[in-house]
Amino acid sequence: MTEDSQRNFRSVYYEKVGFRGVEEKKSLEILLKDDRLDIEKLCTFSQRFPLPSMYRALVWKVLLGILPPHHESHAQVMMYRKEQYCDVLHALKVVRFVSDATPQVEVYLHMYQLESGKLPRSPSFPLEPEDEVFLAIAKAVEEMVEDSVDCYWIIRCFVNQLNNKYRESLPQLPKAFEQYLNLEDSRLLSHLKTCSALSRLPYDLWFKRCFAGCLPESSLQRVWDKVVSGSCKILVFVAVEILLTFKIKVMALNSAEKITKFLENIPQDSSDAIVSKAIDLWHKHCGTPVHSA
C-alpha cells in the first residue's frame, strides 16, 4: 500500500470512529516544527483543510505577515508588536481620543486610523463606510482572539489584506456570484432578477465584511482560513450556498426588500452546514485550491 493510500485509509477510518481531522492536525504540527516555516505549504494546508483552533492564531499571524517564518524571531517580533501597540494606544490617550470607557473595537479603529494617517479631528465625527467595515471585522476577531495585542494585529493585517491584495478582486465577486448561482440553480437566479433583488443583495455584508456579523464565530473562522491563506473567492460560494440552503424561503418572498432583509439575518443554526457545503462547492468549481485568489 502506498503512503498516499495508507493516509487515505487512515483518514477514512478516523472519520468513521469520530476523529475527523486527526491526520490533518498531525500534518500541520509537522509543518509548524520546521525551523523556517514554509509559507507556501501553510497556505496550501489552510486552503485544503480547516485549521485546528489551537493553531489558528499562530498560522494566521504567520500568513498575515505579523510573525516572520523563522521560529527563533517570534518572541522578539511579538515584543516589538506589543511595544508598537502600547505606543499608539498611549498616544491616543494623551490626545484624549480614547479613554478606559471607550469600547475596545473603537480603540482598535482609532489606532488603525492613527497608524494609517486617517484619524479624524474628533472621535465624535461620523463613521465612514470603511470604518463600519473595520468595526464589523474587529467585533468578529474579538470573539475569536483573547489577547488584545494579537487581536489588533490580526484585525489590522486582515483589513490591509482586503484593501490591498484583494482590492481588485472584491468588486468582481457579485458578478462571480451571479455566474455560479446560475450554474447551480438558474431558476433561483431568475426569481431574484424578477423581483429586482439581484442588485440589492447584501454584497457589502458578504464580500466587504467577509460575512462578519452574518455568520457566527465557529463558522466564520473556517471561511476566513481560506481568505487569510489567499482566496477571497470562497466568499462567493458561501453566498451561493446561503441562497441554495434557503431556496424555499427566498422563492416564497416576492420583493427585493424582503429578500434582502431575510438574507441579512439568516438563521444561525444552519451556518456550519452552509460553510461545509460552500467549501465543497468551491472545490467542485475551482479544483483543489492552492494559495491564489
UniProtKB/TrEMBL annotation:
Keywords in UniProt for this one? Cytoplasm, Cytoplasmic vesicle, GTPase activation, Lysosome, Membrane
Instruction: Tell me where it mainly resides.
Output: cytoplasm
A Pfam family recorded for this sequence = RabGAP-TBC
SUPFAM superfamilies the record matches: Ypt/Rab-GAP domain of gyp1p (SSF47923)
Task: Please indicate if the UniProt record lists DNA damage as a keyword.
Answer: no
Q: Under the GO molecular function aspect, what terms does this record hold?
A: GTPase activator activity; small GTPase binding
InterPro entries per the UniProt record, alphabetical: Rab-GAP-TBC_dom (IPR000195), Rab-GAP_TBC_sf (IPR035969), TBC1D7 (IPR039842), TBC1D7_dom2 (IPR043039)
Cytoplasm in keyword set: yes
Q: Where in the cell is it found?
A: Cytoplasm, Cytosol; Cytoplasmic vesicle; Lysosome membrane
The transmembrane segments are none
Ranges for domain Rab-GAP TBC: 50-231
Q: Name one GO biological process term.
A: response to growth factor
Query: What is any one of the record's Gene Ontology cellular component terms?
Result: cytoplasmic vesicle
Record-linked Gene3D superfamilies: Ypt/Rab-GAP domain of gyp1p, domain 1 (1.10.10.750), Ypt/Rab-GAP domain of gyp1p, domain 2 (1.10.8.680), Ypt/Rab-GAP domain of gyp1p, domain 3 (1.10.472.80)
Cited function = Non-catalytic component of the TSC-TBC complex, a multiprotein complex that acts as a negative regulator of the canonical mTORC1 complex, an evolutionarily conserved central nutrient sensor that stimulates anabolic reactions and macromolecule biosynthesis to promote cellular biomass generation and growth. The TSC-TBC complex acts as a GTPase-activating protein (GAP) for the small GTPase RHEB, a direct activator of the protein kinase activity of mTORC1.
Oligomer status and interactors: Component of the TSC-TBC complex (also named Rhebulator complex), composed of 2 molecules of TSC1, 2 molecules of TSC2 and 1 molecule of TBC1D7. Interacts with TSC1 (via C-terminal half of the coiled-coil domain).
The protein's name is TBC1 domain family member 7
